[in-house]
Design a protein that fits this description.
Strand content: under 5%
Number of helices: 3
Helix content: 55-70%
Shape: globular
Radius of gyration: 10 Å
Distance between the termini: 16 Å
Number of strands: 0
Number of domains: 1
Low-confidence stretches: none
Oligomer: single chain
Order of helices and strands: HHH
């Protein structure tokens, strides 16, 4: 999750686009802890 914070600071678009795409693909598994943690971590990043 620290990688997300590193990518968010300089606003690396492609670096953030892939995890967001992955969260979309993992939506059917959204109740699993790892998927939920990833989704929450991405939601907490600045846009």
């Amino acid at each position: 999750m620290s990688v997300l914070r590193l990518a968010a600071a300089p606003r690396f678009g492609q670096a953030l686009r892939e995890p967001r795409r992955s969260v979309g693909l993992l939506r059917p598994y959204g109740r699993r802890p790892a998927v939920r943690d990833l989704r929450l971590a991405l939601a907490g990043l600045p846009v």
